[in-house]
Amino acid sequence: MFADIELAMKQNGGVLRTADLVGMGFSKPAIAELVRNRRIDRVAHGIYVRAGEFADEMHLLQMRSPRVVFSHESALWLNGLSDREPFQMSVTVVRGVPLAVSLRGLCSCHYVDRDLLEIGLSSAKTTQGHVVRCYGPERTICDIVRDSSRIGIEEMTDGLKRYAGGKEKDLVELMRIAAMFGIEDEMAKYMGVLS
Fold first, then answer.
1. What is the pTM assigned to this prediction?
2. Cβ–Cβ under 8 Å, residues 50 and 21
3. What is the pLDDT tens value at each position of the chain, 195 positions in all?
């Protein structure tokens, strides 16, 4: 029966939920026994990985709260615009929809109106190969400029320089998104200096 767990974990990116295990015929007490016997590790409420395996924190956060979008410093890193993996994950959610209390200590949360959440939405692979929702490079650059008071100047400058020097930048899309957020003049100034 443990071979079934191994196979299911392999098919699910190394992570299973309680519902997955129950669906495989394990009772909740049997799941608790698997944890006690170090066959699997509980990494969050209802989420399990192979015993002793390093958990992909971004993937786990996305599993626990599928509506979050990785943004700001996290999106800089996911988009290759920063070499530094953020100490604390940054996410964006819809204003008025609070992040679960159990997740608040794991990340820095930014709030936007519902109509702005999906602008520039993309996806990227974490270092462990899991695909997570994040903003693309243009939206990310707009976010760090909009929230420059919350972003370290070094991180912001490095991200802007890497974006401006990149081959795949889309300045038309960048300015379109900047206009939606009312920062097109500020963005034009930054891009003019860096180009």
1. 0.86
2. no
3. 667 888 888 888 788 889 988 988 888 988 898 888 888 889 888 888 888 778 888 998 998 888 999 999 999 999 999 998 888 999 999 998 877 777 777 889 999 999 999 999 999 999 988 999 999 999 999 999 999 888 888 889 999 999 999 898 999 999 999 999 999 999 999 888 766
